Structures are given as structure tokens and as C-alpha cells.
Amino acid sequence: MLVVGDVITDVVARHRGALAAGTDTTAGIRTVPGGAGANVACWAAHWGCPDVRLLGRVGVDAADWHERELARCGVRPRLVVDPEAPTGTVICLVDTEDSAERTLVTDSGASLRLDPGDWSETLLDGVARLHLSGYLLFSESSRALVAVALESARARGVPVSLDPASAGFLVELGVDRFLGLVEGVDLLLPSRDEACLLTGLPDAADAAAKLSRHVPLVVTKQGAQGALVARGGAVHARVPAAPATPTDTTGAGDAFTGAFLATLLAGADPEEAAREGCRAGAMAVQRVGGRPPGRR
Q1: How are the residues of the chain apportioned to helix, strand and coil, as percentages rounded to the nearest 5?
Q2: Tens of pLDDT, residues 180-234
């Protein structure tokens, strides 16, 4: 599997209750490797995918560290080192009193400066699935890369999946534009909020069903409510969440996606793959940061 997406340095601040405006708020703070694309790749490798590759872009400041951390998770990184922009950084504010829900403050840095010049046809050699991080759609240069990658995948008959990545950025991009950009994708993995935003429907099941008229297979991640599997305009499975006591929800959706794709590539049907995705999501929320606990 080839993942193309963001490689980010996460600064996770776990605080209790509301932030105190204008003064100090006590928090436990850790700096960990992250990025939706990188996290998906690491969880796919952790869930048994034997060959996971990642194309991403980082700054000189943290290139060696990110390469080591990806390799430690069993991912084969191809990191383009940007000569100008620093590695992207996200501050993850995690309220430990609010089901460990996180709020993200994002500086994409080098991560969204991928461009068609970073692509090579040889990246798809031996690849059974291409997965794209939706964050790539939020800058002009990386959108151009997505178009080139999709064309290459179609020419080779390689299926393509995409995670929309951010409801906030989707609002800025626009729903119609997003749906046009993902034409040709065979699998969409939105969160509940993203699915509802993309369809204008308040109910997640209705939203998943409607999206599956545009994309052949839609798997909607619902956190503690599990996942929905939809195809052909109807929901075919409702998969319950695995039990978990959340510590930090950062990267839970990425964990789901990585495990789902690894299980799908191993020959499982989408419902079984969604169960594995829920298991991975439950594991992820009990850890700080968005990466798995080393090789399985």
C-alpha cells in the first residue's frame, strides 16, 4: 500500500476543563510524531500490512526524526525534504474532562507543499492500493499532486481511497469542489461531521447513503458510535465501537483507517474491516498521540 499525505510534529497538551484566557492553564505536554497520512501508514503496518510506503514532505528541521519514527513503525518512508518550509506542526489541545476530545491548531508547513514534481510512476510499482490524505486537497500544489496520482492509479488499475481529513478545511474548500476533486476514488472514509457536511444532511446514516451514490464504498467513522458501511445509496452495516476509556482522541480516525485498509487488503469484506478499524480506534484513544505502540 502507498499512502500519500502529511507528516506532522504534534504537540499534545492535555489539560483539565476550559482553558483560562489571559493566564496559565496547567497541562501535560508531549511532542510526538503525527500527521494524518503518516498515522494511517503506521497503523496499517501495525495491523499487519506487510509493505506500507509513505510519500510526504518535511522540513530540514525534523526530517531525520520523522524518518526514524516511520521506519520504527514498519513504514518505508519516501520523505521529500523542503529546503524552505519547516515541518508542519499541530498543537493538539486535549480536554481530559470532555471525553478527551481534541482541538487542533495547525501550521501545515512543508506537509502541503508536495507537488507533481515529487511524484514518480515507480511509486506505484507493486502497490495494491493508493491512499490519499484529504489534507492534500487544501493547497494548490498538493491538489495538483493528487490529480497526477489519481491519473497514474487509474492507468494502472490501482484502487484509491481518501479520508476527507478536516471538516473545518472542507468548509473553506467547498463541498462541490471537493466532490469534483475526488472523482475516481473508490473508497471514502469520512468522519460523521465530514459526511454530514458533504451532504447537508443531519443524520450520519442518511449522509453515508447519499455519499455512496458518488463514491462506490463509503465508511463513516462515528467515534463512540462505531462505523457505518454504505454502498450503492444504502447503509449495509452498522458496526459498533469497541469499548475504551479515552485518554486522547488524537489520531483515532487515522487508526481506524489504517486498520481498515490493512484488513481490506488482506481479503476481508468491508464490514469485517470496519470492525478491525473500530478495534484500532479504541486502542488509539487510550494512548497519547496518534501512533500505534510499536510493531504488533
Answers
A1: 40, 25, 35
A2: 999 999 999 999 999 999 999 999 999 999 999 999 999 999 999 999 999 999 9
CA dist 282 to 136, 139, 243, 286, 295, Å?
Answer: 26, 31, 7, 7, 17
Statement: residue 296 has pLDDT above 50: no
The residues, any chain, with a CB within 8 Å of residue 267's CB and separated by 6 or more, are none
Place of cell 499512502: 3
Three cell numbers, residue 234: 444504502
Q: pTM for this structure? A: 0.94
For residue 244, give the C-alpha cell.
475504551
DSSP-assigned states of every residue in 250-274: TTHHHHHHHHHHHHHHTT--HHHHH
d(CA 38, CA 10): 12
Q: How far apart are CA 190 and CA 154, in angstroms?
A: 22
